[in-house]
Fold:
Amino acid sequence: TVQPTNVSNTYTVSSSNTSVVTASLGTLNGSFSPNQLQLVAGGSPGNAVITLNVTDNRGETVVYRFNVVVQ
Structure:
């Protein structure tokens, strides 16, 4: 779980198949911006679903899902 610059929201990201692609969010002290999603191809070709959850301070969550294909 990462809290980018908007501290009232909590963001989480996951990959359904980490051998195909891993997903991570930037951090304030990391190598890329808190506003960025980093996708890194694994050693295997295939498909993965990336899921991004955003939860606000009232506990309401929005879920974004998208497919990634690695050849």
In short: The two ends are 29 Å apart (CA to CA). The chain has a mean pLDDT of 88. The beta strands are 10-15, 21-25, 37-41, 46-55, 61-70.
